[in-house]
Amino acid sequence: MGSAGSGRSVPRLVIAAPSSGSGKTTVATGLMAALSRRGMAVSPHKVGPDYIDPGYHALATGRVGRNLDAYLCGAELVAPLFAHGARGCDIAVVEGVMGLFDGAAGEGELASTAQVAKLLRAPVVLVVDASAQARSVAALVHGFVSWDPEVRVGGVILNKVASDRHEELLREALDSVGVPVMGVLRRAAQVETPSRHLGLVPVAERSGVAVEAVSAMAAQVDGGCDLSALVALARSAGPLAGAGWDAGEALVCSPPPPLPSPTLGFARAGGPPSSPGASPPDPHRPFGPRPQTPDGLGGADLGGRPQKTREPVVAVAGGAAFTFSYAEHAELLAAAGAHVVTFDPLRDEELPEGTSGVVIGGGFPEVYASELSANEALRKRIAELAARGAPVAAECAGLLYLCRELDGMPMCGVLDASARMSERLTLGYRDAVAVGDSVLAPAGTRMRGHEFHRTVVEPGAGSSPAWGLRAPVRRVEGFVVGGVHASYLHTHWASAPGVARRFVERCRTS
């Protein structure tokens, strides 16, 4: 069923909805699994920064789930990153984020599902929660179909339909809209997936339960949707221009960093000073993602590729406590010459043999605080590595793990800070500037990131902060201590390939 080809021409669908909670994840994950069961190689994608849904996508398809985020990476990288992930596949399924036209706050369509659909020239299937409506569904769908003529809504899937009579009323109403109904799903408790304070429980934590949930989603979509019609719609997508993203080429092509570093004027003790006569930064000027390369580091030839005098081992945290990571990070580290090895801070008492640097991404260490604390041997190894000046990059959960304590339980003690759970959700995209030089970037490097947590670190920044942020509140954030870069900010290194190269070069020389 289908024939694998280049990512630029692979058939593709975007699964969207009028709002969150309509059933996008159930439909997208179920469709991925149902098509995979029919022998198709399915490429799974997720619009936005979310790490959890791609885990379910990977379980459904047997392939790495990949994110498409026009805010974090820039609109120009959406199609190349898609083509990179979809290379060799028969079909691609892209799960949207929030409502179809919802994106970065105050930025129009930026980072919305609609923008990604347009960048991919992909038809959209609208998943509608029909549980509390009948004829009104026609007005709803008509509005979404007509709102932006550049977005092609090619089909509708009705979710949470109560009965045959309810289905009949809905289909009758939609006849006047001219958009085909490609599926009808009844209420099914078995496809409900458990959630916690930051969304769905990650696949790595649910194991067998997650497999059963994905299987139930597949059965529901297979039984309630016209798969042939959905595949035919996917094949109507036109080819994409340009080549797919490649980690090695990205490292070669990234330009030098901007110098000198900009004046930020952050009003905080210990923040970067303002130059005399300098104009205040324009808070309305957006920070576009600029690829960066390391500045003044040895081991790179004139073509920009690092000389492989030795292959440093970069240990990347994994396991149930640290499930948040973008696949492109490991690919960039490997392309920069590193040997990437995963370790589990819940179980492994030693770092991988020969570790030269550590990357600790996001996850839920607050859920596993007692187990992480109990692994004293590994905590000591990480502290010793950091004390030697080895590069350590930590994001969000990694930041918490490096603190002195988390909810009163001892952590690695690399940072003189304490962390605790909070009732307040911190959520949103951020424009960031590197306040000073670090193992990830030189001072002045501009990046975009995303915060998503219900924890607090005190203090929120060290004497050498990691980032200066402009919105929603002007502040400095994070810690740069020796070779350690720790921050709440999730970043996507495809937007700044030099981050990986700079990190690996530091691993070679530390």
3D structure, described in words:
Residues 314-496 form the CobB/CobQ-like glutamine amidotransferase domain. Residues 13-198 form the CobQ/CobB/MinD/ParA nucleotide binding domain. Catalyzes the ATP-dependent amidation of the two carboxylate groups at positions a and c of hydrogenobyrinate, using either L-glutamine or ammonia as the nitrogen source. This protein is of the alpha/beta class and 510 residues long. 29% of the residues lie in helices and 22% in strands. It has 16 helices and 22 strands. The strands form 4 sheets. The chain has a 7-stranded parallel β-sheet, with helices on both faces. Strands 14, 15, 16, 17, 18, 19 and 22 form a 7-stranded mixed β-sheet that branches. α12 (327-335) links the parallel β10 (313-317) and β11 (339-343). α1 (24-37) crosses α9 (208-224) and α11 (247-253) packs across α12. The chain is elongated and about 70 Å long. Mean pLDDT is 87; it is low at 256-308.
Question: Which structural traits does this protein have?
Answer:
seven-stranded parallel sheet, 22% strand, 510 residues, single chain, 22 strands, alpha/beta
In percent, how much strand structure appears in the residues? Answer: 15-25%
Helix content: 25-40%
**DSSP E strands, number:** 22
Query: Segments where pLDDT lies below 50 for 5+ residues?
Result: 256-308
Query: Strands of the biggest beta sheet: in what spatial order?
Result: 3-2-4-1-5-6-7
Radius of gyration: 23 Å
| Overall mean pLDDT | 87
Structural class: alpha/beta
**Between the first and last Cα atoms, what is the distance in angstroms?**
51 Å
Q: What about the largest sheet?
A: 7 strands, parallel
Shape annotation: elongated
> How many distinct helices?
16
